[in-house]
Amino acid sequence: MAKLLEKNRAIDLRKHGISIKQIADTLGVSKSTVSVWCRDIRLSDKALCRLSNAGKERSTAALLAYSESKHELRQKKTSENQKCGKNSLGTLTKRDRYCIGLGLYWGEGYKQGNREFGFTNSDPAMMSFYITWLQQVFSVSKQDLILRVSINAQHTNRVTEVETYWSNKLDIPHSQFTKISLIKTTSKKVYADSSAHYGTLRIKVRLGSDYREQVLGAIAHLSS
């Protein structure tokens, strides 16, 4: 009697578009048993549509779960790699910092033309490190710095915002910034959020030609 009730319940569920697996799970019987019970049922269009939609939902849920799992694994791996990198670096000596600064200047510093000791980049963290480098290696104070922002002219209405951004990031007053340079050529770079773009910053050291010559001399030694 119990089996007959289960069979009738299975047939009714199947006619309503419930999957074989779901019916088996609901009734606590095997999928093969449910398949035998329901093998002669001809599903209506409505039931077929329900089965199809349920299948799509399960596929989507499975894909989302897989994606979330992969994302968590990537985040964990990234965190482990960053921790490994930090630990391998250890404590930086003064010489270590000096060499890092030389590398930065070699890539982004003024090396041709006049004798200005200047450095340009758009990364706030790099600019902050560079200023600290100037202080530690050459005893240059922030008061001896002259800053200028360059940004495309399409950001004209953001001039104050952009300069304030750099002033706050580096803890240097507006009075040490020269007039912002607006680039009038059409920018080919597309930003996902142009309001988060703060241009490129140039830092020059007042009367810094001697320091520049020392840095270029060290770089020449490195490249020889």
Runs with pLDDT <50, length 5+? Answer: none
Query: Looking across the biggest beta sheet, what order are the strands in?
Result: 1-4-2-3
What's the total helix number? 8
Arithmetic mean pLDDT: 86
The number of E-state strands comes to: 4
Structural class: alpha+beta
Main beta-sheet annotation: 4 strands, mixed
Strand and helix order = HHHHHEHEHEEH
What does this structure look like?
By secondary structure, the protein is α+β, with helices and mostly antiparallel strands. It has a domain of 130 residues. The protein has a four-stranded mixed beta sheet with strand order 1-4-2-3, covered by helices on one side. Helix 7 links the parallel strand 2 and strand 3. The radius of gyration is 33 Å and the shape is elongated. The mean pLDDT is 86.
